[in-house]
Design brief:
Length: about 140
């Protein structure tokens, strides 16, 4: 648990250092919002139903919730860089030895403006990986 919190902290600090704002989207989404977006992977979405009979699903990743959030703002995005870290869910057969689990953490960053260059984006990713100390010399 300590290692997970440490990695999350490093990733949050790196996202924030590049001027990003934290976004928090619901774990539940309307099923129809998610199922048409993932193609073959739609079978991996957890289906749920609330007490009123509305079809819901657990978020599969942060992409669709982020897009829905931006669409709800109607193009009036106050922050050009957004990031989110949170749990996502897959209705899959977990294979721990292959790193496949049903619930796991995912981090995403999105920008409505381009980085000044590919070099800036590469540097951002490089600094994040170096800070986490994963797979970099």
């Amino acid at each position: 648990m300590y290692l997970r919190h440490q990695i999350e902290s490093v990733v949050r600090d790196c996202f924030s250092a590049y001027g990003g704002a934290c976004l928090d989207t619901p774990v539940f989404e309307r099923k129809d919002v998610l199922t048409d977006k993932y193609g073959e992977d739609s079978k991996l979405i957890f289906d749920l139903m609330d007490q009123g009979g509305e079809q819901l699903a657990l978020r599969y990743d942060h992409t669709v919730p982020l897009a829905r959030h931006l669409a709800m703002l109607g193009g009036n995005v106050p922050q050009s860089k957004l990031w989110q870290i949170g749990k996502v869910y897959r209705r899959d057969n977990p294979v721990m030895s292959k790193g496949r689990m049903r619930e796991f953490m995912q981090a995403v960053c999105a920008t409505s403006v381009l980085f000044r260059s590919h070099r800036d984006f590469s540097l951002y990713i490089y600094r994040t990986l170096i800070s986490v100390e994963i797979g970099m010399p």
